[in-house]
Amino acid sequence: MNGLAGQRNTGNAIIEIPAQSEPVKYEVDKKLGLLLVDRIMSAGMRYPQNYGFIPRTLARDGDPLDIIVLAPFALERLSLVACRPVGLLIMTDQAGPDEKVIAVPIDAVCPATISIQRLEDMGDYALNQLRFFFEHYKMLEPDKWVTFEGWGDVDEAYDAIRNAVAAFRM
User: Fold this and answer.
1) What dotted CATH number matches 13-168?
2) Could you tell me the EC number(s) of this protein (predicted)?
């Protein structure tokens, strides 16, 4: 993904928040390279899947491009995992457009996700769980909101990655 802007390939994700961990939003501090507690989430909701970012990218919100990594287990904070995109979660929040790539570990890392090639392969329950979480996790925070805009397919996920890689290089 990152560094492979013109190719349909795999790439890396850095996990900031493991699946089902406590309701604390972490982000990597760009200057220090340390994990920063961004906020304790008022809604008390746990991230339904592993959450992090794609290194060497710059999304439209000014941060590295967000990524949700589906796996049967929680992945350790700050772990680097080779992934392949399967789709895109498209949202808008109080700061503007907010896209999140949805990916799975590459087959050699996690054979359990081989059958997930696109969003539809995840099943309605998993998609609804992601949508519900991201529509509500900021609900009790003053002046914060999220609107679900839709799902993007694999091609749209690669477009978002290419755009974020290009923005990072500028």
Assistant:
1) 3.90.80.10
2) 3.6.1.1
Secondary structure class of 166 (helix, strand, coil):
helix
Residue 47 assigned ligand-binding role: no
Task: Determine whether the annotation assigns residue 25 to a binding site.
Answer: yes
98 is in an annotated binding site: yes
Q: Residues with Cβ < 8 Å from 87, sequence gap 6 or more?
A: 101, 102, 118, 119, 151, 152, 153, 154, 156, 157
Query: Bridge partners of 53?
Result: 14, 66
Is 137 annotated for ligand binding? yes
Burial class (CB in 10 A: 0-12, 13-18, 19+), 93: middle
Strands 50-53 and 80-93: unpaired
Annotation-wise, does 61 bind a ligand? yes
Residue 26 labelled as part of a binding site: no
Instruction: Say which residue the tokens 């890396």 belong to.
Output: 12
**From residue 35, how far is each of 17, 39, 111, 135 by CA, in Å?**
10, 12, 29, 25
pLDDT digit string, tens, across residues 134-157: 999 999 999 999 999 999 999 999
- 93 belongs to an annotated ligand binding site: no
